[in-house]
């Protein structure tokens, strides 16, 4: 349940981060330039918008990173079967079966040894 909640929050934050980044323009355009005018320039309207977009980008990116790291702890754990012990048991069982199915060998007589 918590893992699903983390996934939903990650998707929402990622979508918001994409929107904030798309609004910005590295050359000074974008949303910040549309609010710029002669009177608002002196009041700092463009600068405030740019600062808001920068701070929101950093905040959303840190929140996204934290959510991703926290979701690792909430992820459902899969039961891992110890396959090495199963393989060893299978090999031992085959060795026992092979020894039981081998024909009994006759001990060599003293005459044939000479």
From TrEMBL:
Family: Belongs to the SecG family.
Purpose of the protein: Involved in protein export. Participates in an early event of protein translocation.
Protein name: Protein-export membrane protein SecG
Database matches in Pfam families: SecG (PF03840)
Organism the protein comes from: Lutibacter agarilyticus
Residue spans crossing the bilayer: 5-23, 58-75
PANTHER family linked: PROTEIN-EXPORT MEMBRANE PROTEIN SECG
Cell compartments where the protein resides: Cell membrane
A GO CC term attached to the entry: plasma membrane
InterPro entries: SecG
Topology in membrane: Multi-pass membrane protein
Keywords, comma-separated and alphabetical: Cell membrane, Membrane, Protein transport, Translocation, Transmembrane, Transmembrane helix, Transport
A GO MF label: protein-transporting ATPase activity
Record's signal peptide: none
GO biological process: intracellular protein transmembrane transport; protein secretion; protein transport by the Sec complex
């Amino acid at each position: 349940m918590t893992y699903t909640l983390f996934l939903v929050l990650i998707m929402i934050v990622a979508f918001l981060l994409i929107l904030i980044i798309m609004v910005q323009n590295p050359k000074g355009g974008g949303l910040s330039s549309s609010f710029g005018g002669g009177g608002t320039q002196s009041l700092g309207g463009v600068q405030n918008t740019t600062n808001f977009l920068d701070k929101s980008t950093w905040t959303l990116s840190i929140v996204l990173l934290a959510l991703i790291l926290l979701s690792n702890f909430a992820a459902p754990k899969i039961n891992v079967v110890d396959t090495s012990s199963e393989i060893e048991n299978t090999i031992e069982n085959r060795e026992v079966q092979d020894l039981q199915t081998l024909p009994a060998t006759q001990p060599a007589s003293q005459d044939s040894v000479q």
